[in-house]
Amino acid sequence: VGLVKDWLLRCRDHSTCKEQKSRPLPTRVIDVRTEDPKIIESERLVGSYVALSHCWGSTEDTFSTTTRNITERKTLGLKLSQLPLNFRDAISFTRRLGYEYLWIDSLCIIQQDKQDWGHEAGRMAGYYDSATVTLAIADAIDCHVGFLGFRRHHYSPPIPGEDGELYVLRQTLPGDDDLDLNSCIDKRAWTLQERILSPRVIHFTQGQVVWHCRTARWAEGYIQDRRSLFAWQCSWSYHIGRYIDQIERAAVNPTRNIENIERTRAAQTWYCCVSEFSTRRLTRASDKLAAIAGLAGALSRSQLGQYMAGLWEHDLFRGLAWNRLEPAGTLTAREYEPPSEYRAPSWSWAAVNGPL
To answer: Distances from the Cα of 279 to the Cαs of 82, 190, 325, in angstroms?
Structure first.
């Protein structure tokens, strides 16, 4: 925790990172100040909060808030002993960081309530964008695994030096692609926009805690040399995050002209996101457009025109030239089958399954 607090302090000096200040809270948040945390209605409260990005697991194992238990969870609170380990760890870590509020999608959005889900789904991207920091549980396949346990550090055994002290050898920090290769969270479609839109993300992997912000990338057990820094700055996630942040700054700062942001670059950013998004899994196929709506909202401030079911008005010719790849990678042949229910027009990439 001390290391993460240090990273947060260092990030405050980054001119290209979003300011760490109080913002309007999500509709509901978990108040972690009491022994048994309570779900509260924010009612336009302003504050700093932590968000959680995680894999839900199977729907049968998901611990969620419903119309049946929402009243109890607001009045009596959430019994820590009954919470899945991921949530207990997230509450513990939020408290130790010194924050009062935590946002977890499955607990703060009323599940199986179409009206509440419809209202909150459109705001989810903003919740991650406004969070002071997002905790991303990289290697937990469901909510019961936890992320604060033992980690396999990439250190050598202690080596005695000539001065009598013990030293360890550490590897250089791998690129984003290497860190994500075996990550459960980076196979889930919803987490793409959660990662890109969050101004600061702490990735809890099996071996390391890794920090991402708009300016820096640090890890507790790796050395970041010039080569690893260059590899990160060449990664798709770095460039997309910085570009979306540029659009946001231009939209709110009258001294900058949003017309200067190239339409072609905005379109290329979108197609890169869609390509990556199409390789990931969705529990509900009907969420295809909803799960990337936050990124579309961020890019709507550029000069792409009206957003139309995954395509953009001012780049339709290129947008209509999408092509579905053959079954490969993490998706199975079954996941290429045509959707059983309508979710997008036939001319949209969102109407089909599989990578593009």
So the answer is: 34, 12, 10
**Residues recorded for the chain:** 356
Q: What does the alpha-carbon distance between residue 292 and residue 136 come to, in Å, rounded to a whole number?
A: 18
In whole angstroms, what is the distance from residue 139 CA to residue 162 CA?
Answer: 39
Helix count (H) and strand count (E) of the chain? Answer: 13, 14
Instruction: Please check the confidence at residue 332 and state whether its pLDDT lies above 70.
Output: no
Residue 333 has pLDDT above 80, yes or no: no
Partnered with residue 51 across adjacent β-strands are 103, 134
What is the percent of the chain where pLDDT is above 90?
26
CA distance 148 to 164: 33
* Paired tokens of 344: 């997008």
Q: Which helix (H) or strand (E) holds 311?
A: strand 311-312
Q: Where would I find the beta strands (DSSP E) of 90-226?
A: 101-103, 133-137, 159-160, 166-167, 200-204, 209-213, 217-219
Question: pTM for the full model?
Answer: 0.82
Helix (H) or strand (E) holding 31: strand 28-31
Distance between CA atoms of 111 and 196, rounded to whole angstroms? 25
